Amino acid sequence: MSRRRTQKKRIVMPDPVYDSRLVELLVRQLMREGKKSLAYRICYESMNRVADATQQDPLVIVEQAIRNATPLVEVKARRIGGSTYQVPLEVASERGTALAIRWILSVCRKKTGRPMAAKLTAELLDAAKNSGLAVRKRDEIHKMADANKAFAKYRF
């Protein structure tokens, strides 16, 4: 992290099919080793499966899933007087969205035996219903922040 000046925020251009910045962020996180066309293919196939399963606009389901997995608070370690405290902090909206996408994709990558599009579809549908492992991760983070709210006075 530079001490001189803050980095400018890059503007994410929306994806070509759904014209959504959220889908583009999902594709960028999904991409491995620069294979963006493969990431697009996986994402769009997953969204088609979501549309078939729910008979709704897949963009609405994806937005709902990411919103349900987005954390409101997180804990960061802060060292004060020789001891380390887990200090709860509010999460900025962009960071919350990035964390939600990262958690959804990490859950998909941990599962084995099915194609990535099928795993992503299942996790998006689960997260949209407010269940699934990504939402459970968010709940664990919230519980940890709630347990350590006595240390909120040590916020940065």
Compact overview of the structure:
This protein is mostly helical and about 160 residues long. It has six helices and two strands; from the N terminus they run αααββααα. The protein has a single domain, classed as Ribosomal Protein S7, CATH 1.10.455.
Describe this structure in words.
The chain is mainly α and 156 residues long. The protein has one domain (21-154): Ribosomal protein S7/S5 (Ribosomal Protein S7, Orthogonal Bundle), CATH 1.10.455.10. It has helices spanning 21-30, 36-54, 58-69, 93-110, 116-128, 133-147; strands spanning 73-80, 83-90. The protein has a two-stranded antiparallel sheet. A hairpin with a 2-residue loop joins strand 1 (73-80) and strand 2. It is globular. It starts with 20 loop residues before the first helix and ends in a 9-residue tail after the last helix. The model has no long low-confidence stretch (mean pLDDT 95).
Uncertain residue ranges: none
- Overall form: globular
- Rg (CA only): 18 Å
Number of strands: 2
What is the class in the CATH system? Mainly Alpha
GO cellular component, one term: chloroplast
Subunit structure: Part of the 30S ribosomal subunit.
Family: Belongs to the universal ribosomal protein uS7 family.
InterPro entries: Ribosomal_uS7, Ribosomal_uS7_bac/org-type, Ribosomal_uS7_CS, Ribosomal_uS7_dom, Ribosomal_uS7_dom_sf
